[in-house]
What does this fold into?
Amino acid sequence: MHSVTDSVISSKLSELFAIARNVLVLTGAGISAESGVPTFRGGGNTAVWKGMPFDVISSAGMLQRDLPAVWEWFNYRRGLLGPVKPNAAHHAIAGWQKQFEHFTVVTQNIDGLHQAAGSRDVIELHGSIWRARCFDCETRHELRDLRIGQEVPSCMDCGGHLRPDVVLFGEMLPPGAFERAAAEAQHCELCFVVGTSAVVYPAAAIPEIAHAAGAYVVEVNPEPTPLSEICDEVLTGKAGEILPLLSPTSASSSQLMRSVPSA
Ligand code: BJW
Ligand code: ZN
It folds into this structure.
């Protein structure tokens, strides 16, 4: 088991963090793990629900075959998420938006925890578990206040069937979401990749774009990922322990800095 003591922040990163004007953060399920939200992959495990791997139940095919089962799966997860609170990593990132001239949070998560921590204008690549969308008229409906039973809910505007407003495997991302994230990645100087296995595309292309455009790419994850090789720095450990160390007010940040020889 890794802990934050396995990782130290380089002087290069702390310098860049102090002077950068344009910073992008891409997050995945791992950032919410310390809030108690299960991840999909990691630690050698894959999430399974009622005997079905999540990539079967969370797929465009399942939506066609069994819409009630898809609703049951997302109702179950909304129930789990109800009492969940953002953790130190979400709060650190929300604090960073005050520090940089241009700051972008791109998330693959559908849990809304970045917004709950105070992050604004979050680019949600995979939608939100707190919204439904009408198959017929495409109207989006807030689910937080809606009582959902066992049935497939109907659209309040046209009576059509609703579906969770999330991006399932084999579906397109919300119009413009990837394009906006990719444009921000092109221009950032510093790119953090936090708590993602970096296997799902096109989201995993965001740090690749930042790297190709010359950004300093930093991964924060207890485990290596396919992206680790192209990262300029890999901080091995939990997001909730590592990210607050970068925040300017963190008392312990200076103790964890080290000098790295320049490449
Ligand atoms: C910690 C931690 C701690 C633990 N601190 N870290 C190119 C190549 C190959 C395939 C494709 C490709 N382009 C597209 C595809 C197909 C597919 C895809 O990528 N497949 C690959 C998996 C093979 N992509 C799609 O289908 C996408 N659509 C698309 O491309 O449209 C165009 C198209 C349409 C039709 C045909 C062809 C193309 C859509 C992808 C949608 C993904 N949806 C899901 C489900 C959302 C709804 C739901 O929640 O059920 O999104 S899948 C699931 O994976 C979810 C996540 O957002 C996503 C990414 O997972 P994430 O966030 O990385 O989590 P984990 O669990 O994988 O990793 C957690 C990490 O955290 C681990 O590394 C841990 O170590 C770490 N961790 N604790 C920090 N405390
Ligand atoms: Zn409708």
Observations:
- The two ends are 29 Å apart (CA to CA).
